[in-house]
Amino acid sequence: MSLTEQQVNAYETEGFLTGIQISDGAEATRYRKAFDELEAREGREKCQMGLIDWHFDHEFIWDLATHPKIVDCIEFLIGPNVMMLATHFFCKYGPDEKKFVAWHQDVTYWGLEPPEAITAWYAIDDSDCENGCMRVIPGTHRSGIRAHRKSDREGNLLSINQEVPVSKEEEQHAADFILRSGEISIHHGALIHGSLPNQSTRRRCGLTIRYVPTWVKQVEVNSLGQTWSAILLRGENKERNFGELAKPFPMK
Ligand SMILES: O=C(O)CCC(=O)C(=O)O
Q1: What total number of domains does the chain contain?
Q2: pLDDT tens digit string along 12-22?
Q3: Which pTM was predicted?
């Protein structure tokens, strides 16, 4: 799969791409059913934010994180030497839970130097304004990392309740990532993004997959007090900045 020059330029200017189809209907259904089964076993509370790095034990998550079409897109944007850092499901149930994701920049608490990372957000479910799709403030990845503070609003799903202040005007220019199940959006690690509560009766689940080029270093632990469990997916890891783990399953 390839990205056009126009898409690469748009990513550089705006800090995101959205609506990229990865799975056809049958494949998207297969992944959604695999998640449904996981949810039935683990329960909703765990599934909301508690499934971090389960690609080491669950082949369908590994298959998504290493999906050749997704990694092709990432390679276009960060170059040939691609490491996967982590996977994390963000699952919001509505309409009573009122959980949201406060505006933030991913790399703030990731301990990376330089703070360069990229995320693919794979839609397990259809995602729209009603069920709390992801939103971003275009171009904000180009103006550095802003000071984050603790959110004073109830229901922030982020790991340390962080939030970055955003002006009314910026908020008015937010872009909504409306995705069909099986599509992805891609965002730069410094792009301001978040999501509103799910006001529908439909689940809104997405798998975030974090990638870095091999020349990035981890100089501090991340917000969970951990070092990343990185795996080389493409190219060479000459820099050896991350302890490189073995692939838990074959790549398809
Ligand atoms: O899924 C969401 O609503 C937010 C995802 C997010 O914050 C992230 O990818 O870092």
Answers
A1: 1
A2: 999 999 999 99
A3: 0.97
